[in-house]
C-alpha cells in the first residue's frame, strides 16, 4: 500500500493459430495491461480484430446509453462460451446486440423526440422569460394610436445609444448574461421606433398571433410539464422493459465488454506468417500464474523495469482493501502516483478523516452528514457514477470520525442538548442528554487543549490548542518532506535529491524540533514549548549577541542558525538548477535563487506551518456558530428553561437555521480545507502524481472454452 506494486514487463510469443487461446487465458488472468511491442516481430496487425473492435465499441456505447437514459446501471455478469475465434465471437455478439437494441428502439426514439421537444420549448421560454410579467396582448400594445412601444433585449452599448435619444423613454431589467430586457416608448409623430431599432440592429420581441408574453409563457410551461410527465412515463416503460430482461441485458453487457477487451488485445499485437506477439505489464507477484496458464501455448519472457529511468514508465498499481479504495479518488484529483513514488493513500486514509473530525466535532451534525452520505451513495449507485460513490464513502468515513470527536467534545447539534444553559454560562441547567452521555466530563476536560469549547474555552486553553494544531502540522510537514527525500532516493536522481528535496527536509525539521521539544517534559509540555519560543524571539531581537545561558536558549539560537543555513542551502540549490537547466547568467541565477529559495522559502516555512491553525479555527467557528444561534433562541424565550426553548416555535426555527448553516456551510468548507491541507501543504513536499494508472484487460463474465 505504501509503494506501488513491482511490475514485470512480459513478452508473449505464440503460434499464430493459438492467438485466441492466449487471449482467452490473459482475460481469465485479468491482471495484464497490454501495450504496443517495443521490438515487433513484424509490422502486420490483426486487421479483422481492429475492424470488429469498432463495431463492438459502438454496441457498448449504445448499451451504456440505454442504461444512462433509463437511469438503471447494471453490473456485467453471466457466462460466455468461446468455441471459435474472437472475431467470430464478436460478429455473433454484434448481431445479438443489434437485436437487443432493436427491442428498445421505439422507446428510445420516443424519449429522444420528447427531449428534443422539451429543449425547443425551454429555449422559447428563455426568450419569453424577461417579458413574462406583461399581461397585455402585444397586438394591442404595438398598435396604440399615440404611443409607439417596443419590447427588445439590448446590450449595454445599445442601451446607452437609446438613452441618448431624448425622445425615447426606456425601462430596463438586467439579465444574467449582461444584457437588458427593455421597454422603449415614444410618441408616434415624434420619432419612429422602427427606425431606432433598425439603427441598433435589433428587432421587436414578437409572440405567436400577438398574444401576451404572460399567456404564451404559461401555455409553454404547461406544455413542458405535460411533456415531462410523458417522458417520465416513457422512461418508466423503458426501465420496466430493462428490468424484465435484466439478466439477458447484463449478460449481453458483460459479453460486449469482454469481447472489447479481447479485440483490444488482439489489435495491439503483431502477427507474422507463423507467430503472434504481444507485450504488457503484469504485477510481479502474479506473473508466474500467467506463465503457468500459457506454458503449453506460448513462450513468455519477462524483464523487471527499474523504478525510474526507463524510456517507458510502467503503470502504477496499488492493492487496496475494498473498504478504503474510495479514498483513491481524492488522490487522483491530484494525479496518479508515478511508478517510483510512495503512494499517499496509506496516510490519507488516516489523516483525511482525522483532520475532518477535529475541524467538525459535533455528533448531531456529523450524523446528518452520514445520513446524507448514505443517500448520496445510493444516488451514485443509481446513476452508475463511481465518483459520486467514492465521494459519498469518503464523506461517510469522515462523518464517523467527526461523530467520535463530537462525543469527546460533548456536542450534539450545538451546546444545548448536552451541556445545556450551564455550558453557555446562563444558568445552572444541564442539557437533557447530559446524564446519559457516554463520555464523562472528566474526559472532555482532559481533552480541552485539543477541543477548547464551552467552559474550557479560555485564553490559556486556546493558546494550548494553537500549539497542538501547529504540532500536528509540524509532524505532517516533516513526514511529507522526508517522503520527498525517500522518493528522490528511489528515483535515483542525485540532482533531484540534493537540490530539490534535501533543502526542504532541512527546513521543515525546525518546526518539528520546536513544537516537539515539549515532549522532553510531557507534564509541562506547553510551558516548555512556550519557553523555547520565547528564547527564539529573544535571540532574534538580540542580533549578534545570542543568549546561551541555558540549554533551551542555546537550542533556540541553534535553530535560528539551522534555518539560516537551510535557507542559504535552498538559495544556492535553486541558483544551481536555474543555471544548469534555464541557462541563466550567474547574477540572474543568484537573484532568482534568492527570491525562490530564500525569501519565498522562508515565507512558505512560516505560512505552511501556521496554516494548520485552521484546525482550531474551524472547530471553534463551528462551535460558536451554534453557540450564537443557541443564545439567540434563549433571548427569544427570555428565561432559562430548556423546555421553553424546545417548545417555542421561534426558538426552534432559530436552532434549525443555525444547524443547517453549520451542516451545509461549515461541512462544505471543512471538507475543502481538509483537501487543501493535504494537497497544498503536504502533497507539494513529496508527491508529483504524474503516473499512469494500471488498466488491465479482464473478462467481465465467466469464460468457458
From TrEMBL:
What are the TM regions of this chain, as residue ranges?
345-376, 388-409, 466-489, 501-519, 554-572, 613-637, 649-672
Keyword annotations = Coiled coil, Ion transport, Membrane, Transmembrane, Transmembrane helix, Transport
InterPro entries recorded: V-ATPase_116kDa_su
Topology versus the membrane, per the UniProt entry?
Answer: Multi-pass membrane protein
- Can you name one GO molecular function term for this protein? ATPase binding
Q: A Pfam family for this UniProt protein?
A: V_ATPase_I
Give its localization.
Answer: Membrane
Q: Which range is the signal sequence, renumbered to this chain?
A: none
Any GO CC annotation of this UniProt entry: proton-transporting V-type ATPase, V0 domain
Q: Which residues form a coiled coil?
A: 90-124
Q: Name one GO biological process term.
A: vacuolar acidification
Q: Which Gene3D superfamilies match?
A: 1.20.1460.20, 3.30.70.2170, 3.30.70.2750
Q: Which domain of life is it from?
A: Archaea
Similarity annotation = Belongs to the V-ATPase 116 kDa subunit family.
The UniProt entry, under PANTHER family, shows: V-TYPE PROTON ATPASE SUBUNIT A, VACUOLAR PROTON ATPASES
Functional summary from the UniProt entry: Component of the A-type ATP synthase that produces ATP from ADP in the presence of a proton gradient across the membrane.
- Name recorded for this polypeptide: A-type ATP synthase subunit I
What is the source species?
Metallosphaera prunae
Amino acid at each position: 500500500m505504501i509503494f506501488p506494486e513491482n511490475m514485470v514487463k512480459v513478452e508473449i510469443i505464440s503460434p499464430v493459430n493459438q492467438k485466441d487461446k492466449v487471449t482467452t487465458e490473459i482475460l481469465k488472468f485479468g491482471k495484464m495491461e497490454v501495450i504496443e511491442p517495443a521490438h515487433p516481430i513484424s509490422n502486420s496487425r490483426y486487421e479483422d480484430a481492429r475492424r470488429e473492435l469498432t463495431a463492438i465499441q459502438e454496441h457498448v456505447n449504445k448499451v451504456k446509453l440505454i442504461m444512462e437514459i433509463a437511469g438503471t446501471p447494471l453490473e456485467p455478469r453471466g457466462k460466455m462460451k468461446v468455441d471459435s475465434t474472437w472475431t467470430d465471437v464478436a460478429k455473433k455478439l454484434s448481431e445479438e446486440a443489434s437485436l437487443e437494441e432493436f427491442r428498445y428502439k421505439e422507446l428510445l426514439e420516443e424519449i429522444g423526440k420528447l427531449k428534443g421537444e422539451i429543449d425547443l420549448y425551454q429555449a422559447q421560454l428563455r426568450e419569453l422569460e424577461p417579458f413574462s410579467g406583461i399581461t397585455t396582448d402585444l397586438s394591442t400594445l404595438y398598435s396604440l394610436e399615440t404611443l409607439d412601444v417596443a419590447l427588445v433585449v439590448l446590450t449595454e452599448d445599445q442601451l446607452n445609444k437609446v438613452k441618448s435619444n431624448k425622445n425615447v423613454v426606456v425601462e430596463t431589467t438586467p439579465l444574467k448574461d449582461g444584457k437588458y430586457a427593455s421597454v422603449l416608448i415614444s410618441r408616434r409623430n415624434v420619432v419612429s421606433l422602427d427606425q431606432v431599432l433598425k439603427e441598433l440592429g435589433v428587432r421587436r420581441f414578437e409572440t405567436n398571433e400577438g398574444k401576451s408574453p404572460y399567456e404564451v409563457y404559461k401555455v409553454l410551461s404547461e406544455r413542458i410539464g405535460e411533456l415531462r410527465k410523458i417522458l417520465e412515463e416513457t422512461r418508466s416503460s423503458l426501465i420496466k422493459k430493462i428490468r424484465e430482461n435484466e439478466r439477458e441485458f447484463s449478460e449481453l453487457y458483460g459479453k460486449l465488454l469482454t469481447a472489447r477487451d479481447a479485440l483490444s488485445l488482439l489489435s495491439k499485437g503483431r502477427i507474422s506468417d507463423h507467430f503472434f506477439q504481444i507485450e504488457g505489464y503484469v504485477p510481479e507477484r502474479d506473473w508466474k500464474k500467467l506463465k503457468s496458464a500459457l506454458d503449453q501455448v506460448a513462450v513468455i519472457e519477462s524483464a523487471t523495469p527499474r523504478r525510474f529511468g526507463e524510456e517507458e514508465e510502467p503503470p502504477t498499481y496499488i492493492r487496496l482493501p475494498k473498504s478504503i479504495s474510495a479514498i483513491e479518488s481524492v488522490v487522483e484529483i491530484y494525479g496518479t502516483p508515478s511508478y517510483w513514488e510512495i503512494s499517499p493513500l496509506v496516510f490519507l486514509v488516516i489523516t483525511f478523516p482525522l483532520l475532518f473530525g477535529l475541524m467538525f466535532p459535533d455528533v448531531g451534525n456529523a450524523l446528518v452528514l452520514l445520513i446524507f452520505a448514505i443517500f448520496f451513495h445510493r444516488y451514485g449507485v443509481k446513476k452508475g457514477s463511481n465518483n459520486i460513490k467514492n465521494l459519498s464513502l469518503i464523506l461517510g468515513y469522515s462523518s464517523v470520525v467527526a461523530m467520535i470527536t463530537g462525543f469527546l467534545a460533548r456536542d450534539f447539534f450545538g451546546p444545548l442538548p448536552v451541556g445545556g444553559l450551564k455550558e453557555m454560562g446562563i444558568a445552572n441547567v444541564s442539557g437533557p442528554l447530559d446524564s446519559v452521555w457516554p463520555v464523562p466530563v472528566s474526559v472532555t476536560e482532559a481533552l480541552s487543549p485539543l477541543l477548547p469549547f464551552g467552559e474550557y474555552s479560555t485564553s490559556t486553553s486556546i493558546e494550548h490548542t494553537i500549539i497542538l494544531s501547529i504540532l500536528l502540522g509540524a509532524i505532517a510537514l516533516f513526514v511529507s518532506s522526508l517522503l520527498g527525500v525517500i522518493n528522490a532516493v528511489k528515483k535515483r536522481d542525485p540532482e533531484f535529491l540534493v537540490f530539490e528535496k534535501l533543502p526542504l527536509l532541512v527546513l521543515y525539521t525546525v518546526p518539528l524540533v520546536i513544537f516537539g521539544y515539549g515532549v522532553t517534559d510531557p507534564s509541562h509540555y506547553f510551558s516548555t514549548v512556550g519557553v523555547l519560543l520565547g528564547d527564539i524571539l529573544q535571540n532574534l531581537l538580540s542580533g549578534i549577541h545570542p543568549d546561551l545561558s541555558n540549554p533551551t536558549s542555546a537550542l533556540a539560537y541553534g535553530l535560528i542558525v539551522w534555518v539560516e543555513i537551510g535557507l542559504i542551502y535552498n538559495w544556492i540549490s535553486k541558483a544551481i538548477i536555474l543555471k544548469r537547466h534555464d541557462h541563466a547568467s550567474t547574477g540572474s541565477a543568484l537573484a532568482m535563487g534568492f527570491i525562490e529559495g530564500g525569501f519565498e522559502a522562508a515565507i512558505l516555512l512560516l505560512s505552511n506551518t501556521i496554516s494548520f491553525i485552521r484546525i482550531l479555527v474551524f472547530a471553534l467557528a463551528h462551535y460558536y456558530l451554534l453557540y450564537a444561534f443557541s443564545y439567540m433562541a434563549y433571548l427569544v424565550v427570555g428565561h432559562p428553561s430548556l423546555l421553553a426553548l424546545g417548545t417555542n416555535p421561534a426558538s426552534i426555527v432559530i436552532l434549525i437555521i443555525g444547524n443547517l448553516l453549520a451542516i451545509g456551510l461549515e461541512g462544505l468548507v471543512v471538507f475543502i480545507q481538509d483537501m487543501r491541507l493535504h494537497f497544498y501543504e503536504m502533497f507539494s513536499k513529496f508527491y508529483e502524481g504524474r503516473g499512469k494508472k494500471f488498466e488491465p484487460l479482464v473478462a467481465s463474465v465467466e469464460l468457458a472454452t
